[in-house]
Structures are given as structure tokens and as C-alpha cells.
Amino acid sequence: MKKAGLVLLILIIISWSTGCVMQQHNAEIEVTSPDISSPDTIHAGSVDLYTPQFRITNPSNRTYTNILVRININPLLTYCHPLSKEFEIPVLNPGQKRIEQVSIAEFVDMDCQYSYTYEVVSNP
């Protein structure tokens, strides 16, 4: 019984130390949206589709891996809906830019406007 407990303890220590890398908040990667206040609007029947673009940029001289970008889109008017979106990026090289688009559906003619916040985490 003692051998089984010792083997289990060793396996737990090995599995914890080999593959686990904690992700950290990354302040280097920037997320901007030039059209968040007036995104492109597509009228589709009884709904409007808003499609703001988000530019994800690595201005540093360092390559980052396993990047998770969380964007929270907040309406400026109370009758419009908030939205959260996550993007996983395997690698972002120095100076690399990437554009992601988010679609938001609202009832027709609500004229919604949005702001956003974001959080980026990656491997150290």
C-alpha cells in the first residue's frame, strides 16, 4: 500500500512539473478597434448585424505563444446587448498584426453604439 501511494505521489509530481505552464496577463499585446463606435451594419430582415473589427498587434520584439484574447463589447445604450468573445492565437511574432471580426445581432433600427475592454493572457 505504501508503494502504491509513493508511486501515485511521484506521478502527480511528474505530471505537474512537465506540462503545466501558467499563463500570465500580457500587457505587450495591443487590441484596438478603429470602428467600434460606428461599426459596419448589415440589415437582415428584422435584425441588424454589427461587425466591428479588432486589430491584435504585437509591437514588442518578443514572440508569444498560446495567446488568449478576451474582448468584452459593452453597449452605450441600455436596450442593446453586451457580448464577450474569445480568440485563441497559437503564435504572435514580433510586429505581427492580426484582424478579427465580431458579429453582434440586434433588433432592426436600434442604432446601437459600443465600447470595449480587453484582456490578453499568454505563456510567459
Explain this structure to me?
The structure is a single chain. The chain has 124 residues and is mostly beta strands. The protein has one domain: Sandwich (Immunoglobulin-like), CATH 2.60.40. It is built from one helix and ten strands. The chain has one helix at 2-19, and strands spanning 24-25, 30-32, 40-44, 47-51, 53-57, 64-75, 83-92, 97-101, 104-107, 114-122. The strands form three sheets. It has a four-stranded antiparallel sheet with strand order 1-10-6-7, with no helix packed on it. The chain has a three-stranded antiparallel sheet with strand order 2-5-8, with no helix packed on it. β3 and β4 form a beta hairpin. The longest helix has 18 residues, at 2-19. The radius of gyration is 21 Å and the shape is elongated. The two termini are 40 Å apart. The mean pLDDT is 87.
